[in-house]
Structures are given as C-alpha cells and as structure tokens.
Task: structure prediction
Amino acid sequence: MYTQAEENYLKALFSITLEVGNEEGVGTNELADYLKLTPPTVNNMLKKLKTKELVNYEKYGKITLSDSGRAHAVYVIRKHRLWETFLCKKLDFNWNAVHEIAEQLEHIDSPELIDRLDKFLDYPSFDPHGDPIPDAKGKIKTGSRKLLSELKPGAQCRLVAVKDDSTAFLDYVNRLGLKINSLIEVVDTVDYDHSMHIVVDGGSHTVSKKFTDSIQVLAV
Amino acid sequence: MYTQAEENYLKALFSITLEVGNEEGVGTNELADYLKLTPPTVNNMLKKLKTKELVNYEKYGKITLSDSGRAHAVYVIRKHRLWETFLCKKLDFNWNAVHEIAEQLEHIDSPELIDRLDKFLDYPSFDPHGDPIPDAKGKIKTGSRKLLSELKPGAQCRLVAVKDDSTAFLDYVNRLGLKINSLIEVVDTVDYDHSMHIVVDGGSHTVSKKFTDSIQVLAV
DNA sequence: TATAAAAGTTAGATATATCTAACAATTTTA
DNA sequence: TAAAATTGTTAGATATATCTAACTTTTATA
Ligand SMILES: [Mn+2]
Ligand SMILES: [Mn+2]
Ligand SMILES: [Mn+2]
Ligand SMILES: [Mn+2]
Result:
C-alpha cells in the first residue's frame, strides 16, 4: 500500500484543489507550503508519485491528481473523518482534540477495519466538524454551503462546518458558544476590515474576516 | 516519542524474556530471529536504543531492557491488547483477524486515546486471546497458568489463553471448537511425540506437542 | 523587451531502518 | 587446548523522506 507520506501528499492535493477551488492544478511551492515542507522535498516526492501514476505532472507544470490518486485521497479523507467521528461520538473527545489523533489513525491500512468502523458508527454522513464523510464507494455529499463571510447584515444561518482544524481556532469557536447547528445572526459588517457583528445564543460578538472565512453555514 | 521500529524492538525484548523465561538477557541473533530481521540490523538498532537508555547492552554481551525500556514495552503491549479487545468486542472481528491490525494500531501515540479506549471497553483485564492487559500504571495480572502440554491424562482444564497469534494457528483452534474458557479434558498422551488426545465439547481430537505448547490453561 | 522576481529543479547532505558480505570474538567440542 | 561452530560486529550499500545551497526556468513588470 501507500506510505504515510504518500497519503499525506494525496490528501493535500485533493484538499487544495477543493478548498482553494484550484482547478488547473497545484504548484510545487503551494503544495510545499501547505504541507510545511520545502519545495525540493515536494519535487522529489512528485517524481515518485508520478511513477506510481498517482499524479499528473510534467517538469515546470502544474500538478493534478490522477483518477487513482484522487480515489485514494478520498479514501484517506474517509478514514480520517470516520476516526474523528469515532473519537467524538464513542470516546467523548472534544472536537478540538480529534484532528491530531486522526492524522495518525488515517494511515492504518485495513479496509475491513474501516468498513466495520463505518457500520459501528451507523454510517455517519458528517464528521464532528461538519465535513462530509465519503461513503465506501468514495461518494461525497455536497451541499449549497456558504462561508459566514459571504453573508449580508440581517441574514440568519446555521453553522454546518468549520474549515480550520487548529486547536486555537476551535477553542475560540467553543468560547463563542458555537457548535455544529448553532444559529448565527449577522447584525452588521464593518467595511474597513470586513469584521462582523454576530449574535449567537443571545450573545453578541465581533469577529474578524479571518474567522468568518473559516465558518461554513447554511442559510436559514 | 518512540518510532514504530523502536517500539517493536522493546516489545520483542519483553516478550522473549517472558515467554522463553530468558532471565539473563537476550542475544543479538535470537532477537533478530524473533523480529525476522538480520543480526546486523539488530546490532545497529541496539546502539541507538542504548544511547536512549532503553536497553542495557555491552558489545558481545546479553541484552536486557532498562527500567524505562521495560515500562514502554509494557505500554506498547497495553495498547496492542486494548486495540485487539476493541476490534473483537466492538467491531465484531474474529479473534484470528485482530492481531495484524493491532500491530499497526499499537503505534498510535496518544496516551489520552488509550485511557479513553480503556474506559470505553470498561477496563478489560484480558484480551481476546486471554492475555492480561497491563493497567494504566503498567501492572499486569499474572495467574498460575500452565501449558496444555504440561497436563497429565485425566486432567481437566479451561482454555485461558493462546500463545500464538498466527492465523493458521487460530483457524485451527476455531476448527477444533475451542474458545476462551472452553473445557478441555486430557484423555491420553503419546510418549513417542508427546501428541495428546483431548475431548472438547464431546468431540475427540488428537493434537501435536507444537499445538499443546501454544495453549495456556487453568486446571479445573 | 530586458530585467527582476517568483517558481521550480538539481545536487549533495542527513537521518532512519534495513540489507549482504566479510570479519572477529566467544563458545562448544573433539 | 586447538579446531570448529556459533554468535556477534563492521563496512558498505539501498530505500525512504527530509533538508540547504545553488542553479534554471518561467512569469511579471518597469
Ligand atoms: Mn481533521
Ligand atoms: Mn496524515
Ligand atoms: Mn496480538
Ligand atoms: Mn508492532
């Protein structure tokens, strides 16, 4: 099977393409940045991934996942999100603690284990951060989600996902009293720096653009 | 923390010392054999483990675990056996399938995960093969267990543990209808090759010394 | 369009973990 | 106790995954 490093590159490529909406492909430096590695390291690995036909890549060109590369990337994401769900639902972990552990667990190689874990969790559709869990066939539920930062004053919405796994961010989310499904009301926005006044559970808060860019919502 | 390779060496040293009752220490070749590696590979790793003060070892001398080496070995065994218990009890795996997966899971580094898993499983004392699970303080339950091969004709006993994790062995155990707690009656032994006639659940079988050496029992 | 900046690659080094081949030390045994 | 067998070590190679420094190619911009 694939090494941990290889799986991390595949997952990163998939996520960058999706998150940044980067259709035409990813650059070496961009990928290096995302993975917190140096460009030569990435360049070196790319050659390996190309030989294994997991990526499409020509010297000085953009990188994209091949079909098999994408399929495996989705599988790694499935593993990651199922484990996160297990940690929260069954072991009572706080949602801000599960990502780091799932980074390790996602590399365990046993398709049967993942199938059984999926069943044990009753085939969940979303992980504790609201992200969709690919099913056994690699199919991912997509919805018409928006970023909180896109909403206008007066809008009401429900938090469906957080797009930042860092403990600092999730701690802050917790401190604001926000959870998956929390009702958020946009009171006002500040033109100057796009910060936003929101009301959550009757509590009023001012949050930065950096923050509202990491909150995915569904209009209500 | 420790690498997977390091953890495997520590676990192997602990097991050899225990299983073979090897008190004075383990040799390079013996350890290499056990781990299915070559002696130079082991020699090389030993130097690293010595610098980290996990083993006591002098050139051409016997290898023993240091206190911290032993403590970590026990912790790896705790992780392994808790995961095996999880796989059987919660994910409904057959006991002959869990060892290989636990070989991977035992290297996940998160003490909190293990504590919570232990609680989730209601602090089990024995794994699916009947082996004792070290508690959070590293304490291991020991009992007055014997090998089936040590019993004399007429003896009755209960199977408490199997000492071979291989699929071939466990499949055979299953085929004989043996489970943890099965009642076994020793009918007769053959002097020539120490094979044994046993009765299990009314069924009569003849089993080899190799087999009876891998079955731990408690007299009844 | 020439130059500067950004992006990407190559070369060579390091660390981990493994191997084979050759050699050395220790232990067994005749 | 000398030779043989066993056990253990050293040297040098390979594979993976990473780094820094130097260089090249592509892209942006003056
Ligand atoms: Mn995550
Ligand atoms: Mn990962
Ligand atoms: Mn096992
Ligand atoms: Mn292991």
Summary: The pocket of manganese (II) ion (ligand 1) is lined by residues A 80, 84, 99, 102, 165 (CB under 6 Å). Chain B touches chain A at residues 87, 90-93, 97, 100-101, 104-105, 108-110, 112-113, 116-117, 120 (CB under 8 Å).
